[in-house]
Amino acid sequence: MKRSTYFFLILILGSLTALGPFTIDMYLPGFRAIAEDLHTDVSSVGLTLSSYFIGISAGQLLYGPLLDKYGRKKPLYLGLLLYILASIGCVVTQNIDHFIVLRFFQAIGSCAATVASMAMVRDLFPVSENAKVFSLLMLVVGASPMIAPTVGGYVTSSVGWHAVFIILTVMGILMLLATIFWLPNSFKPDTSLSLKPGPIIRNFWKVAMEPQFYTYTLTGAIAFSALFAYVSASPKVFMDVYHVNDKTYGWIFAALSVGFIGSSQVNTLLLRKFTSVQILPVALAVQSVVGLFFVLGAMNGWLGLWATLVLLFVLLCCLGFVNPNTAALALAPFERNAGSASSLLGALQMGVGALASVFVSLDETNSALPLALVMTAAAVIALGVLLVCRRAIGRVKPAEAA
Q1: Helix, strand, coil % (nearest 5) of the chain?
Q2: At what angle do helices 96-124 and 130-159 cross, to 10 degrees?
Q3: 400 domain residue, yes or no
Q4: DSSP E strands, 36-171
Q5: What is the Cα–Cα distance from 23 to 170, expressed in whole angstroms?
Q6: Do the beta carbons of residue 86 and residue 370 sit within 8 Å?
Q7: What are phi and psi of 69, to 5 degrees?
Q8: What is the number of other CB atoms lying within 10 angstroms of the CB of residue 193?
Q9: Where does this polypeptide localize (predicted)?
Q10: Confidence class of residue 1 from pLDDT cuts 50, 70 and 90?
Q11: Under 8 Å CB-to-CB from 363, ≥6 apart: which residues?
Q12: What is the pLDDT of residue 401?
């Protein structure tokens, strides 16, 4: 593959993968403005984020069989169209309950982009390069939390939060056009696959019972739920607990995202000397130890704004190592069922993340402790799952040249 073609594919796939995170991050600085405009509170606005995560989790399972039966592009067209319509609905809504429902359907649409892009990595690139490609996708995806909340903060303060969803609508249209005109058909549809519930469930069950898949999928989903908790709780922690304004919050969110994106790129360098199997437990162990310090500090009132920022930065760095390696290892055993595997992986990741998001959104305490507890529990449980479940794996199919 030519270097220019390689770069262009990474850019498009990364942009599709980033659509969901951008939709999550860009409206976060507007939580307070949305609450005032829709005559509700910030905790209720937080449920629009939880409904988005639930929608992504449900939508992942919907698109997996469609991507395998009809190819990658047609289901992607459908999802992006739904995303555009739901985004327009968010622009005009005047009711928090309607907003929660619209965010659910916006998520159903956006997750088509996520599932399709992950499956296309498995289609278009050799399995030995998958971990590196996923890390490169993180470079594009990482621009989302760096740019989105900062732009969202300025847009909200200048012209109002509705403009954020106008921008997201335009992004959806651009992604649809890029998919139609520039993304190659990477997979020959398997018309023999049935879309009846029975065969779909059996296919998912077959994928789920692969020891390498469930080991690294569960590990990654549980560990990555820390990010969902952070995204959901960060507006309250920074704006209510530490009293920063919406613009400053956007800059803080962007700065912390450097940890996630930077470590995902360091991961590509480490893969030259180490395997994903070697890197993963070290990252989870560090995440667990740092999380325990976070909990102790939050419980005893030792943490000011700067200490909280440092701890969160390190925790996000750890997640930058965990995510690409667990994704690559989980999908490595599959070729024919890559669409179903990637959708099931995404569904579990988003489902666990949604639970973490709901938990921190419903909390009423004016403290960083709930966030610290969820992020630490995610790391410790994920490490335990990895150590226990990997015993069932025979020979690990490599996610990189190792």
Answers
A1: 85, 0, 15
A2: 150
A3: no
A4: none
A5: 12
A6: no
A7: -85, -40
A8: 19
A9: Cell membrane
A10: low
A11: 233, 370
A12: 37
Number of domains in the chain: 1
Answer for the pair 10, 130: CB distance below 8 angstroms, yes or no. no
CB 333 within 8 A of CB 210: yes
What is the separation, in whole angstroms, between the first and last Cα of the chain? 21
Residue located via tokens 């000397």? 273
| CA proximity to 226, closest of 381, 38, 91, 388 | 381
- What does the block give as tokens for 278? 């070697």
Cα–Cα nearest to 277, from 221, 224, 321: 321
Predicted TM-score of the model (pTM): 0.71
Place of tokens 């390696």: 325
Is the distance from CB of 101 to CB of 51 less than 8 angstroms?
Answer: yes
- Residue 364 clears pLDDT 70, i.e. is over it: no
Model confidence at 246, in pLDDT bands (50, 70, 90)?
A: confident
Specify if 122 maps to a domain: yes
Answer yes or no: is pLDDT of 158 > 60: yes
The per-residue pLDDT for 139 is 66
32 in a domain, yes or no?
yes
Domain boundaries, position 35: 3-392
Pick the range with the lowest mean pLDDT from 136-150, 177-191, 235-249, 384-398: 136-150
- The CA angle 273-278-284, to the nearest 5 degrees, is 125
Q: Are 121 and 130 in contact (CB under 8 A)?
A: yes
Q: Report the distance separating Cα 220 and Cα 378, nearest Å.
A: 10
Specify which of 7-16, 237-246, 280-289, 353-362 reaches the highest per-range mean pLDDT: 280-289
Q: What is the pLDDT of residue 275?
A: 86
**What is the per-residue pLDDT for 34?**
94
Between 247 and 73, residue with greater pLDDT: 73
Dihedral sign, CA of 264, 270, 271, 277? Answer: negative
Distance CA 307, CA 15 (A): 33
When pLDDT is cut at 50, 70 and 90, the band that residue 189 belongs to is confident
CATH number at residue 132: 1.20.1250.20
Amino acid in position 191 = T
Contact assessment for residue 342 and residue 115, using Cβ atoms and an 8 Å cutoff: yes
Q: What is the mean pLDDT of residues 283-308?
A: 92
- Residue 322's nearest CA partner among 252, 398, 397, 218 is 218
pLDDT score of 63: 82
Q: How many CB atoms lie within 10 A of CB 123?
A: 18
The continuous run of DSSP H or E covering 358 comes out as helix 338-362
